[in-house]
Amino acid sequence: MIKSVNPYNGEEIEKFKELTKAEIDEVLKVADSRFKSWRKTTFQERSALMMKASEELKKNKKEYARDISLEMGKPIKQAISEIEKCAWVCEYYAENAEKHLSSKTIKTDAAKSYVSYEPIGTVLAIMPWNYPFWQVFRFAAPALMAGNIGVLKHASNVMRSANNIQKVFERAGFPKGCFQNMVLGSSKIEDIIKDSRIKAVTLTGSKPAGSAVASTAGDQIKKSVLELGGSNALVVFKDANISESVKTCVMARFQNTGQSCIAGKRLILHESIADEFLEEFVREVRELKSGDPLDENTFIGPLARVDLAEDLEAQIQDSVKDGAKIILGGKRDKGYLEPTILTGVTPEMKMFREETFGPAIGVTIFKKDQEAIDLVNMSDFGLGVSIFTEDQEFAGKIIPQFEDGAVFVNELVKSDPRLPFGGTKISGYGRELSEDGIKEFVNKKTVYFNKY
Q1: What is the pLDDT of residue 452?
Q2: Which residue numbers are catalytic?
Q3: How many structural domains are present in the chain?
Q4: Does residue 340 sit in helix, strand or coil?
Q5: Same domain, yes or no, for 295 and 221?
Q6: Same domain, 113 and 142
Q7: Which residues in 271-372 belong to E strands, given as ranges?
Q8: In the prediction, which pLDDT does 359 show?
Q9: What does pTM read for this prediction?
Q10: 177 touches 33 (CB < 8 A)
Q11: Which residues of the chain have pLDDT under 70?
Q12: Which of 34, 91, 99, 378 could form an S-S bond across to 177 if both were Cys, CB 3.0 to 4.6 Å?
């Protein structure tokens, strides 16, 4: 049995029976069979259903958001926003998939030559708990609109949300088998990837999990897309708007209780504005309300599991031993960790080198602009970076020097259905969202008509 436990009070929410080998086979059989008919549906037919999925999400957003809050501790207002964003991605692909996948004519010596984009079959999605709806929908909406089939292996602690996602598609009227959740643990994943009915796999998660999945998929010569987390930097240059930058940096680090791959985890400040910035930053963070995730005034909830809070606490204490100083927070009570700010963080410390998944941030000071750029690129991760400056021309000149998959100027790094999302280095490969995302799992077919 797989248990769903409320991280706020430790109470068991629900038990889920793990699928047997025979039941997994039935899921894949249904998916494979459904693909044969689903791939023949028109964009108009798929679009109508996807719009109904959006309507279902908006209609019952409080119901779905409540289960997110209960299962992984996300503050309820943020959970509702997550559901609304899922409705948006459904609408985006309902309106744009046909255009994104329209055939591309290429002039050659042929009478006619073009590239067509066709579905490949059943795609396995392995998804994490921190955005239990959004991580899935940003895969599912483009995959289904492209004519593919989705099967989900979700994180074990958000299995009610996983079942709810399947419910959304069922309530919207999608044919049986278009999207199925599989209640199972990680030990079953390897065999599922190897199954000939699975044509590709996408994973959002840790580097070890990504490495294992990519290895298995590669051995089977199957396409994979990996989003493996990040250690995004927030770089505040000397000419930045301090008040606005502070507000953005607080949101970038502490929303979702800091449990986000694209959260700003390294705060890099120019020495001339560091004191002023930190004074205001500390004041803003101190005012963040911690408490019951179901309380609409709560901004900081518990971490999704106690061991996650313990791991973050260890990273903080290890950095303190190496010379960092806690200027706010630092105390843990079971799964709760106070919003924490450390100064004097250097590249050798864990708060700089490792991904910190929770409400804590390390501060590093720089003197010269090139030093800031080098500090950003020093990370093994490469998901995104936020830079804060009033000089747009300067920003444009330094953007090519960053090695990340995204650069946001005077804004926190965020995913948007209209823009490609993904990283470099150990943050993974491939792209989600936008036209790039929907083309990850299609057959880009070259078509050539000869002249006679």
Answers
A1: 78
A2: 227, 261
A3: 2
A4: strand
A5: no
A6: yes
A7: 325-328, 332-333, 336-337, 340-343, 360-366
A8: 98
A9: 0.97
A10: yes
A11: none
A12: 34
